[in-house]
Specification:
The structure is a single chain. The protein has 234 residues and is mainly alpha-helical. The chain folds into three domains: 2-88, Four Helix Bundle (Hemerythrin (Met), subunit A), CATH 1.20.120.1810; 96-143, Arc Repressor Mutant, subunit A, CATH 1.10.10.10; 152-233, Winged helix-like DNA-binding domain superfamily/Winged helix DNA-binding domain (Arc Repressor Mutant, subunit A), CATH 1.10.10.10. It has twelve helices and two strands; from the N terminus they run H-H-H-H-H-H-H-H-E-E-H-H-H-H. Strands 1-2 form a two-stranded antiparallel sheet. Helix 4 (44-61) packs across helix 5. It starts with a helix and ends with a helix.
Length: 234
């Protein structure tokens, strides 16, 4: 693990050889996850290549301050990349077995939350269900709702689509990006991390909470506060 993290650090500093090495060392994880999508009508090797893109993103964006295992951080990005590819091609389907497994995991999550007075960690859920952490993430991703542009965010019932600008000229777009970047940069560290994981890494509130040591409810509340801040800043 130490060598893996050392390679990631070197890769983030621009060492191309280290970058290629860390990708090669973790291709087993990519292939394991790609196998779960082989019934979607796409060649396995193509799925591996798409999953590798998610692995590359994970290497480049991994934040050592998260204090989590790199594979735990990488799994959602790999799965997300494959799912986006299948969704864009109109091929995404979820098997009944995976849906059933996801429901069982959610039920076990509720049981552990009631028993311990807090939401269980991913590794605790995996142990309780007798499956791997990767399988837990995959099943929860599969039964998670598809986010809609009409989804409301914040206390004033604004829609997610409200934050996507209409077609503008390049200068307007650049101005908006600069303003948004400055607004996000002014947020406290925790709030910046929530925005990064939720809207730039495309993680769910549950996964974001796992990485930051927060409950899903806490992430949801913080996200609403952040949206209000950003609206006021813009």
């Amino acid at each position: 693990m130490r060598d893996n993290l050392a390679l990631i650090e070197q890769a983030q500093q621009g060492d191309e050889q280290a970058f290629e090495q860390v990708i090669a060392c973790n291709m087993g994880l990519v292939k394991k996850l790609a196998l779960k999508f082989t019934d979607r009508g796409v060649d396995f090797e193509d799925l591996v290549q798409i999953g590798a893109i998610g692995m590359m993103k994970a290497v480049r964006s991994f934040d050592f301050s998260y204090e989590c295992v790199f594979s735990t951080y990488a799994v959602p990005l790999i799965i997300g990349e494959i799912r986006r590819f299948l969704r864009d091609d109109g091929m995404i389907k979820v098997s009944r077995l995976t849906k059933r497994q996801g429901v069982e995991i959610l039920r076990k999550k509720d049981e552990l939350t009631a028993q311990n007075g807090r939401e269980p960690r991913l590794h605790e859920l995996a142990e309780a269900c007798g499956i791997s952490v990767e399988d837990v993430i995959y099943a929860l991703e599969a039964v998670g709702p598809v986010r809609s542009l009409s989804e409301t965010v914040g206390d004033d019932d604004s829609e997610l689509g409200d934050f996507i600008p209409d077609k503008q000229n390049e200068m307007d777009k650049l101005t908006d990006r600069i303003a948004l970047s400055q607004a996000i940069g002014s947020l406290p560290e925790l709030e910046r991390k929530i925005i990064l994981l939720r809207y730039f890494r495309d993680l769910s509130q549950q996964q974001t909470g796992e990485l930051l040591g927060l409950s899903q409810v806490k992430v949801s509340r913080e996200e609403k506060k952040i949206m209000n801040k950003l609206r006021q800043a813009l």
